[in-house]
Amino acid sequence: MHQMLFSTKHLTIGKPSRKTSSKRSLTLVLRAMCLVLALGCAQLSSAQYSGGARSLALGGASVGQTGVEAVLANPAGMAFQSQTAFMLFGENRFGLADLKSVTAAAMIASDLGQFGIKTHYFGFEGFNRQLISLGYARKLFEQFSIGGQFDFIQTRISEYGSQSVLTFELGFHSRILKGLHWSGHLISPIQVELGETGELPTILRTGLTYEINQQLQVIGEVEKDIEFPIRLRAGIEYSFLQQMFFRVGIATEPSLLTFGLGYKRPKGFSIDLGVNYHANLGLSPGISLFYAIGKPS
To answer: What pLDDT, in 10s, does the model give residues 59-85?
Structure first.
């Protein structure tokens, strides 16, 4: 049986035995194909930029997040929170073991600005993507910040090899009126080749967050991957009992309904739970755990 192996200058090639690995290789290819079909190409391209369980509950809207959650979604948002914090986020898409992801992040506050670090894993043993990011954000003015982040991404297919690329992100976050925030985020703005497998997607996101009062805020976001249709995301967050939050949201491309709960303390431990629902593929739950040091700004 002839096996087609892809190769690039960044790719490490394995040469499997025909007898012992043909069935296993076919299984890996089929599982990878099912992964892409189940997740959706547009979602796969931005899977490593998920903003945590809060974002999951708000239709996936995350470009306006601040603090340690901004390390996952838009580095500029780090500058609007001067509190060192740590975060762990896990998600299982559509109840499939092969579609699990885990992200760990930290934001270090300093007089020089905010520094962020993130590591992310998505996939299964035979097919996975790993990401390590280093970011920085700083306020240029009292109500306006910018941020940037370098991403090292490695994609691995068992028995075929692995490929590594380096890209970057840019973002801004601003408070344009009392209670109204506008944010933007550009992912991989220059073309990054993935050898014979294509290019790393360029994604542009922008959104608004409107704080109606201390208990209620509305969030809207638009995302455009240059290879896919525009995605819309929107959510509502309601605060009750001071530290509890209820969230609902919607998204398009694909159509999703989302909801979740949160418990947030000014410092110490906090937790968010989020779920999205796809009419054909089912539920995707996620959980975020936080630990914050010092008083929030």
So the answer is: 999 999 999 999 999 999 999 998 999
- Return d(Cα 128, Cα 157) in angstroms, integer: 7
pLDDT at site 25: 45
Residue 79: exposure state from Cβ atoms within 10 A (0-12, 13-18, ≥19): buried
